[in-house]
Design a protein that fits this description.
heterodimer; A: alpha+beta; six-stranded antiparallel β-sheet; globular; B: alpha+beta; 5 helices
């Protein structure tokens, strides 16, 4: 084996350092073709009958990854030089490519050409790295050709004209992507091709809405060097662009350099940046800040369509309050405190693929040819995308996925290419899938490797489990579970035994998922990725395969199951005297629903032991709950709705608020207690690597809308501590029974969401959970549907000395990244549930225009936002017609939170009850929405 | 970061169980009683041994054994950017001590009472694993000087990155922040004279990593023995003192069958040393070293 040294110059913190690294060249790197006689073919990935082997260059991978992901493309050799370049340029594409290479169905082989003694090339003097890499690709292609002989054809796929020419000169057959795909004879594939920017000249057709051809619409992005210099000198500010979910013409850039958010109004100022892009922003001169604002309102009125949506459950989901400054119009200082700016360059793109539909357009005359169409994303933050397609007629009524390729300053819209079709628009399954895709939820069936990790079915508790010294036999206990009706994945059960000394032994038994999900197994990896089960209205996407969730782990009635138990001895005053944790075997005697449990407790004639236990527990739970509230836990409310679904058609039959009973609160109380106990236990044992859950205190600004609203109705809320807020919420009793709940709902949405974190990353004071007013909190009680609980189970088992702590916990960055992923998945799961509920609300009202009562929650200049308690939805009611620019009829009183007619005849105030009419309209095709009108 | 690609190659093209190319040359400093240059990849170390000779500082003289002294330093040019203080800092002092104690354990000091042996090692080029390279160079130099030793001491490091045990970390891998286990053994008697790690590792992983390092040490020992043999042959044949150079590529085989009980002892002690290492890092600031 030869050794070679490569010399690299590398800048680090601006310094130029010469780095010398060893580079070993090997003779044991194989070609990956199973029919090769020379190479060891044990790791071969290419098909044994491959007549053509493709070698792709970097740009082909970067631009045409969607094409590569299509099944039609196979027998591809990915060179390590290509992999490295892709990794440096776009990590997202790199990960997709890696997934392709490790997918056992696809025939992609990674050839480490950089380490092979025959294919390594040394940069020649004066040769640019790009040229050197191109040469390396050609050398590798040539090597393959001579290595495999004439039986197989090696085709180098490159769109680089120069590279192609050189390859042909060297005797390698080279083709461009287009010509290769054409030669495959599948016209559908051509749509997957990203358009090369040079083809822009040919774009016509849909361009008629463009004011004049070749007019420069956006200013040129500044070159990277200028941006870096500008950032250094403080003229530019770097940050992630966040487009307002409710107004795509407004965006924010959170900038650390000025410590505030910079507002960007209008697409021209956004300058082709997408939501999530890291951008460089230049501040506009201060005198323009006003001007921009008035301009933005015009913009807004042009296109604003505040969709009806579910009530946001926390501040993270809520629309940004854009008008909040308008309240203090006279105050110039506060007005100018919000800087506005414009984007001068994009530092890092956040382009991925988007889900939506094509804008309806007449079919072009000649069918079968290439047509240009505009794609409208479902996500309103994304601008329209221009695509080319050969199957326009096919796609018009479909939900499709489109990826963005480029956006040059001459075109109003970015250009992209078609990726795949999801299904027909309006079809419930399609729309549900769209919800999943938009929230990055993996709903694919579990792979065979994952399913192979499951224990054989039918499974039952074995004698080994019973004899296992770590497992306590608790089958004699009267354990029962209380869950929502129809719940199949029962992960918690309870027991409560009166002790002779007057105390109670209370146990919380949690399904012992970690007994089946072993660290490092494919099953565990899959669960880590999925993070949580997702509950849509009509289906559930499991984190773990069904046999585990519904059978093996589920603590069903009358079967023996493995559990992880937390057992306390409590006084009748619900003081915990002692707590113990153990793995156990239990046998649940009843799987109750909340309704049943409640009915049992309420029915004074019932005296059976389970009912007695329930009553005892309920009494304890009430004490615990009261104590928690006294400590300052917030009782927040959310407007959760429940659907009744037709079992045949899966269409919603009825919706209503989810009713919370005492039984729910009872179970919740014990789960909270178990979670807190476990959090304390694992933190004492593993102060640096515990997974906990925290809820940051809301900042003043976040509570601002609540305070303003409360002041308008004459309510004084004290938000200094969670305790003070809880008390003042208790005192906020209005004239009608729903008033208090409404206030609580509004308070809830001012809060951020609780997040998982690794205890080593933060200091102990930051661990606290604001909403629960708990010093520590974690998730332990639902390991079937949340991965965080699985981790906590492992931590607890290790704390008890039952098992060793898996290696992940030693690796803090990895633990942090797991926690981040859990937060991301958790949030997406919630968003998906909400989107699913919204979708079903829409389907429900499509056939049933309804009149109902609503409460005003926010006043706007041309109307107000109402909340419909019965259906848990929120949406705008317009007082003036949409396009009426006059709008002088109504006056807004921000101080009083009232909107009045100029003649004073009618006025609406916040929290007032109004009657509205709800029906589904379709102002833009394929975007049906719910419209609320005042009666 | 990805230190081992899914294809099983490290950043420099080695596989996880492979060492860098090693190269040794005896007699690099003619004035010294014994000297050697040892290279592991881009790490290049020179060692010179003086002695046994009269003790310079009488107060340090030991009546029953020889005094072994060691000085470790890094050349100004050994790293990319110029080193400001090549010796005398905490790190150098620690490594000097480590090398001294490791070598002392194999030199038959009781045969040379009231004398002094000086070992000077200098890093000419640093690319990770300087500690191991220094020990190997010192062994060669001591052998060249004809100082009686129980056995050759050889040393090699191993690490654990991307859930893979890696043999002989280079600078890039070393600065990844993962555990770095440096082991020194007496290959003939299978005894450990040095074991250091400045990180936490689960027990069973640690055993694998240490086993790997031991395999590395044995491979180095074979090579060193070859070099010495060659050198001796030349001395015998021509009578000239020209140094010999040869290269070898060492690939370690599957973990050899060491005495299980012995291994257990190693592992156990090793673990204690890990704890010690932590303590050192967190509180004491006392160099951690181990000889047993």
């Amino acid at each position: 084996m030869l050794q070679n040294k490569s010399f690299v110059r590398k800048t680090r913190q601006g310094k130029v350092v010469k780095v010398v690294r060893e580079h070993y060249l090997r003779d044991d790197i194989y070609c990956g073709a199973p029919f090769c006689k020379v190479c060891d073919s044990s790791a071969a990935r290419l098909s044994s009958t491959a007549s053509t082997i493709l070698i792709v260059d970097t740009n082909v991978v970067l631009n045409q990854i969607d094409l590569l992901e299509n099944e039609a493309i196979d027998d591809v050799v990915i060179l390590s030089v290509v992999l490295d370049e892709v990794k440096n340029k776009n990590l997202g594409v790199y990960n997709r490519l890696r997934a392709l290479c490790s997918n056992s169905v696809r025939k992609f082989f990674v050839f480490s050409n950089e380490y092979h003694k025959d294919t390594y090339v040394k940069a020649m003097v004066g040769e640019s790295p790009n040229d050197r890499n191109d040469r390396a690709i050609r050398v590798a292609a040539q090597w393959y050709q001579t290595h495999l002989g004439d039986a197989t054809k090696i085709v180098l796929i490159t769109n680089d004209r120069d590279n192609k020419r050189k390859a042909t000169e060297e005797g390698i057959s080279a083709e461009t992507v287009e010509s290769y795909v054409k030669s495959l004879g599948q016209p559908g594939l051509l749509d997957l091709l990203a358009q090369a920017p040079s083809e822009d000249v040919a774009k016509e057709g849909v361009e008629d809405m463009r004011p004049s051809k070749k007019k420069i619409i956006y200013s040129e992005h500044k070159p990277m060097s200028e941006i870096t210099a500008g950032l250094h000198r403080g003229i530019f500010h770097q940050g992630k662009l966040r487009v307002n979910r409710y107004n795509p013409f407004e965006a924010y850039v959170g900038s650390e350099s000025i410590g505030d958010e910079i507002i960007i109004y209008g697409r021209a100022n956004m300058n082709r940046a997408f939501d999530g892009d890291v951008v460089a922003v230049e501040l506009l001169p201060q005198e323009q800040w006003h001007e921009e604002k008035s301009l933005s309102i015009v913009d807004e009125e042009d296109e604003e369509e505040d969709g009806i949506h579910l009530v946001p459950s926390s501040a993270d989901d809520a629309p940004r309050v854009t008008n909040q400054i308008q309240g203090s119009l006279g105050n110039a200082n506060s007005e100018s405190s919000r800087p506005s700016g414009r984007v001068v360059g994009v530092i890092k793109r956040n382009w991925h693929s988007y889900c939506g539909s094509l804008e309806p357009m007449p079919m072009p005359a000649g069918t079968g040819g290439v047509a240009h169409a505009l794609f409208v994303s479902k996500d309103r933050r994304i601008p329209k995308i221009r695509i080319q397609t050969r199957q326009l007629g096919n796609l018009l009524d479909k939900r499709i996925i489109v990826a963005v390729d480029s956006w040059d300053c001459l075109s109003r819209y970015p250009s992209g290419h078609y990726v795949r079709t999801v299904g027909e628009i309006g079809d419930r399954d399609t729309e549900s899938e769209v919800v999943l895709i938009e929230n990055d939820i993996d709903a694919r069936p579990f792979s065979s490797q994952v399913l192979a990790c499951l224990p054989p079915l039918p499974w039952s508790v074995s004698s080994e489990d019973l004899e296992n010294p770590i497992r306590q036999d608790l089958r004699h206990l009267r354990v029962f579970s209380v869950d929502p009706p129809g719940c199949k994945d029962i992960d918690d059960a309870l027991h409560c035994t009166a002790l002779p000394n007057g105390n109670f032994e209370v146990g919380v038994h949690i399904a012992d998922v970690t007994n089946f999900v072993h660290p490092g197994s494919p099953l565990d990896d899959e669960a880590t990725q999925r993070g949580t089960s997702v509950y849509l209205v009509e289906r559930r996407i499991d984190m773990l395969p069904k046999p585990l969730t519904e059978d093996i782990c589920s603590l069903r009635a009358d079967v023996e199951r493995l559990a992880f138990s937390v057992i306390w001895e409590m006084t009748p005053e619900a003081e915990i005297i002692s707590s113990s944790y153990t793995k156990s075997v239990i046998k649940s005697c009843a799987a109750l629903s909340y309704v049943e449990a409640q009915a049992r407790m309420d029915d004074s004639r019932l005296m059976d032991p389970v009912t007695a236990d329930l009553r005892n527990m309920n009494a304890l739970a009430k004490v615990m709950r009261q104590r928690r509230i006294d400590r300052g836990a917030l009782t927040l409310a959310s407007a959760e709705v429940k659907f009744q679904i037709d079992t045949e058609t899966h269409d919603p039959l009825d919706i209503g608020m989810y009713q919370i009973r005492e039984a729910n609160q009872m179970v919740e109380e014990f789960m909270l207690a178990a979670n807190i106990s476990v959090a304390e236990k694992i933190l004492t044992h593993f102060p640096l690597c515990s997974l906990l859950r925290r809820h940051p205190s809301p900042t003043k600004e976040m509570l601002e809308p609540l305070l303003r609203m409360a002041a308008a109705v004459g309510l004084n809320l004290d938000v200094s501590t969670s305790k003070a807020l809880a008390d003042s919420l208790d005192h906020a009793v209005g004239d009608d029974p729903y008033f208090n709940k409404l206030i609580r709902i509004l308070a809830t949405r001012c809060m951020t969401q609780a997040v998982y974190f690794c205890s080593g990353d933060l200091t102990p004071p930051e661990f606290s959970h604001y909403g629960l007013s708990a010093r520590l909190y974690t998730h332990f009680t639902s390991p079937i549907r949340r991965y965080a609980d699985v981790i906590v189970h492992r931590l607890l088992a290790a704390a008890l000395g039952i098992y060793k702590l898996p290696g992940v916990f030693q690796d803090r960055p990895q633990l942090t990244s797991i926690a981040d992923n859990l937060n991301y998945r958790h949030r997406n799961a919630q968003m998906a549930s909400r989107a699913s509920v919204e979708l079903h609300t829409l389907i429900y009202f499509r056939k049933r225009p309804t009149d109902t009562e609503a409460r005003i929650v926010k006043i706007r200049s041309n109307g107000f936002i109402v909340f419909v308690p019965k259906f848990g939805i929120e949406g705008p009611v317009y007082l003036t017609p949409r396009n009426d620019k006059g709008g002088g009829e109504w006056l807004v009183d921000e101080q009083q939170q009232k909107v009045k007619k100029t003649d004073g005849s009618v006025s609406y105030g916040v929290l007032q009850t109004v009657r509205i009419h709800m029906e589904v309209v379709e102002p833009q095709p394929n975007r049906p929405k719910l419209q609320l009108t005042l009666i | 970061m990805e230190y081992v690609s899914p294809e099983g190659l490290r950043l420099d093209g080695r596989r996880p169980l492979e060492m860098r190319q090693i190269k040794a040359e005896i007699g690099a400093v003619s004035k010294a009683d014994g000297s050697a240059v040892f290279e592991m990849g881009n790490t290049k170390v020179i060692a010179a041994v003086y002695g046994p000779r009269e003790v310079q500082n009488r107060s340090q003289q030991l009546s029953d054994q020889a005094l072994v002294r060691c000085e470790y330093s890094m050349a100004n040019f050994s790293t990319g950017d110029r080193m400001r203080k090549p010796k005398g800092d905490r790190r150098s002092t620690e490594i000097s001590l480590v090398i001294r104690q490791t070598m002392e354990a194999c030199i038959l000091t009781h045969l040379m009472p009231r004398s002094q042996i000086d070992i000077f090692v200098q890093v000419l080029q640093a690319d990770g694993g300087t500690r191991s390279a220094c020990i190997n160079a010192a062994t060669l130099a001591l052998a060249d000087a004809g100082i009686p030793m129980r056995d050759l001491v050889t040393s090699c490091s191993a690490g654990y990155l991307n859930s893979t045990p890696l043999l002989d970390l280079n600078y890039v891998e070393d600065s990844a922040g993962g555990p770095d286990v440096t082991v020194g053994i007496l290959p003939k008697s299978d005894k450990v004279t040095l074991l250091q790690m400045d990180a936490k590792l689960p027990m069973d992983t640690f055993e694998n990593v240490m086993q790997l390092a031991i395999e590395g040490c044995k491979a180095i020992a074979n090579y060193i023995r070859e070099v010495l043999l060659e050198n001796t042959k030349q001395l015998e044949g021509a009578g000239s003192s020209s140094g010999s150079t040869s290269t070898a590529y060492v690939k370690s085989s599957a973990p050899g069958a060491l005495d299980a009980e012995l291994m257990h002892k190693f592992a156990f002690r090793g673990w204690i040393m890990c704890l010690f290492g932590m303590i050192k890092f967190q509180t004491l600031g006392i160099p951690c070293l181990s000889i047993f």
